[in-house]
Amino acid sequence: MIIKTPKLYISGKDTIKQAGQYIKEYSRKPLIIGSEKSLDAAYEGLKKSLEANGIASDNTDVFKGFPSENKFKFYLDRIDETGADAIIALGGGRVLDTAKAVADLADIPVITVPTIAATCAAWAGLTIQYDDEGSFVKARPLKKSPELVIADTRIIFSAPSRYLFAGVVDTFAKYYEIRPTVEHYKNSLNLDIAFYSSRLAYEKLKKNVFKAIKDAENGIFEQHAKDVVDAIIYLAGFAGSFQSEDGYISFAHPFYHISARFPNTRHKLHGEKVAYGILAQLFLEKKELSEITDVVNTFDEYKNAFTLSDIGFDRENTDELKDLAYQAKTEFNNIIWNEDEIVNAILDADSLVKRVVTPA
């Protein structure tokens, strides 16, 4: 069993103001990278805290693009030029995954500061690698998780709710993906830990998301917000921390990864495409239609019940769907269904969403 977790995870309102006192244990001269929106949201608070703790804050870069080999090389060169002793990453999955891979290659610490809660990328000990255009290349295992994760609930809940809803459904996916795997592999402690962690995350989100959003509208970023952020980043990340040779028997994330190779789908977030993959997976598992319908209704609450057209596919273009199924089956060894079954499940999910969800 390989377990990869951060050394320290901190969450709560205005944690960015205390960031420096934790970061000083790892760095005095960091490279700070973030998207333009992420830097707008978090840099000033981070800068004050860094400077108050004797840490340089002037080596920054506005991130654009994808976690690609060229992007990794760009930041490795930047580290060599500036003598940076760590990376601080502010943002969502693309920024955080890039920083983690670069830090892994440079053998320096990485500190992640998620400004949205759309995935558990701030925690995970791997990077999803793309090419420069945004097509999925591979999941890139890293030697370890980030040293430190700083999740500020005020910053995260100030972002558009679309990102939060995508993160909610991406966290739900951990439960739906691990469940059939636990049923298949008996007596696996790491899978049991992952399953119960994912189920706890699911329950925490169902209970707290809309309460936290209502609180945030009133300027409150306390326990409900913390429970939501912790479920998406900590619990979902924790569920993925227990690694073994037993891969998940699932289709949700493979659907996301392969769909990213189709440019017409790139307007959708990670979790939004994973949501569709979950529905297709439930058809592949031959779950009762009533159960799948309940899942569609749940996803609709979080504005994540999508049709194929919403994702960017044409259901009449069966060649494209067959290509997606072929690539998924070829590249993910733990997909136990054949290509025809995959195509049919994708179409069945589309038909069900059209029946259940009334267009606005």
The CATH class of the largest domain, by name, is Alpha Beta
Give the overall pLDDT as a whole number.
95
The tally of domains stands at 2
According to CATH, the fold-level topology of the largest domain is Rossmann fold
Instruction: Please work out how many helical segments DSSP would assign.
Output: 14
**Unreliably modeled segments:** none
Overall morphology: globular
Number of extended strands:
10
- Strand coverage percent: 5-15%
Could you provide a short overview of the structure?
This protein is an alpha/beta fold and 360 residues long. The protein contains 14 helices and ten strands. The chain folds into two domains: 1-167 and 185-245, Rossmann fold (3-Layer(aba) Sandwich); 250-360, Dehydroquinate synthase-like - alpha domain (Dehydroquinate synthase-like, alpha domain, Up-down Bundle), CATH 1.20.1090.
Question: What keywords describe this structure?
Answer:
six-stranded parallel sheet, Dehydroquinate synthase-like, alpha domain, alpha/beta, Rossmann fold, globular, 14 helices, 360 residues
